[in-house]
Specification:
Blueprint (H helix, E strand, L loop, with lengths): L4 E7 L5 E7 L4 H11 L8 E6 L5 E3 L6 H8 L5 E5 L12 H16 L7 H16 L2
Parallel strand pairs: 1-5
Antiparallel strand pairs: 1-2, 3-4, 3-5
Length: 137
């Protein structure tokens, strides 16, 4: 209803979609903070937002620039994807459960898609962790 507001769908690593309402002057960091608040993420610095560019490639949102201008100028559609942007050298860096969970979802997707290779033994260990996370001990 308000011309200064816009609603943007954001696909999470769990394949769920949430909607964020932002001001037309909001920067990318505002959108990332909005997502982090909605999913109770305390460490959003390891994650980022992507959009599909008009060249049909994934492009990271510049968190310091107005989001609506970036999307209007470069995006195919007004839709964002919440994705892992930085890897951690050790899981102890991830102090909250929500960050660990979304990090795990990202890594699981990368392994399943074949974008990260792992040995057979590591794949079995990861599968056991995945089952344990989903179904409990």
């Amino acid at each position: 209803a308000n011309k200064d507001l816009f609603v943007i769908p954001i696909e999470l690593l769990t394949n769920e979609c949430i909607e964020c309402t932002l001001f037309s002057t909001s920067i990318g960091q505002d959108a990332l903070n909005n997502v982090a608040q909605k999913i109770s993420l305390q460490q959003p610095e390891y994650f980022g937002l992507l959009f599909k560019s008009r060249k049909n490639v994934d492009q990271w949102v510049d968190l310091s620039r107005p989001l609506k201008k970036q999307l209007d100028k470069h995006a195919i559609e007004v839709r964002l994807y919440f994705r892992l942007q930085y890897f951690v050298p050790n899981f102890h860096f991830l102090t909250d459960e929500a960050s660990r969970y979304h990090y795990f979802c990202a890594m699981k997707g990368l392994v399943i898609d074949g974008r990260i290779a792992c040995s057979r033994d590591d794949a079995i260990l990861l599968a056991s962790f995945s089952l344990q996370a989903e179904f409990g001990d």
